[in-house]
Write a structure and sequence with these properties.
Radius of gyration: 21 Å
Strand content: over 45%
Number of helices: 1
Largest sheet: 5 strands, mixed, barrel
Helix content: under 10%
Structural class: mainly beta
Distance between the termini: 38 Å
Shape: globular
CATH class: Mainly Beta
CATH architecture: Beta Barrel
Number of strands: 6
CATH topology: OB fold (Dihydrolipoamide Acetyltransferase, E2P)
Strand order of the largest sheet: 1-3-4-6-5
Amino acid sequence: MVSLNRVILAGNLTRDPEVRYTPSGNAVADLNLAVNRVYTVNGEQKEEVCYVGVVVWGRQAETSGEYLSKGSPVLIEGILQYDQWETENGDKRSRLRVRADRVQFLGSPKKGEYGDAPQGKRSSKPPQEDVPPAPPKGDEGDDDDLPF
């Protein structure tokens, strides 16, 4: 049996990301994406919008909350995830959303994007990749100390 679950979407956020933390301290962010499609029927141009819920985990959730806002263009890569739960009233609920493996910020930063934003949630510098610090000089160690 063949099975493939991969989603790639590009669109704009319909509202600011909602970031929260699990009891164990893991960041999780909910994003809402609008993906537009323009097509022609009998010479008349039409447009439809597909709204997609996206969940992002870990460091990408934190940076999404820090640097993205309503209207931000993003590219999302991930998988479809089917969630089921029961409400306090006993009603069964379900939803299909994207669990993002990658969130790519599109477009260029606008004036003030990393500075004094109205929401006050932006830092003074753009996001950096997590890079481990270099070992101090003179502390290179011996190759025999390597675990492999």
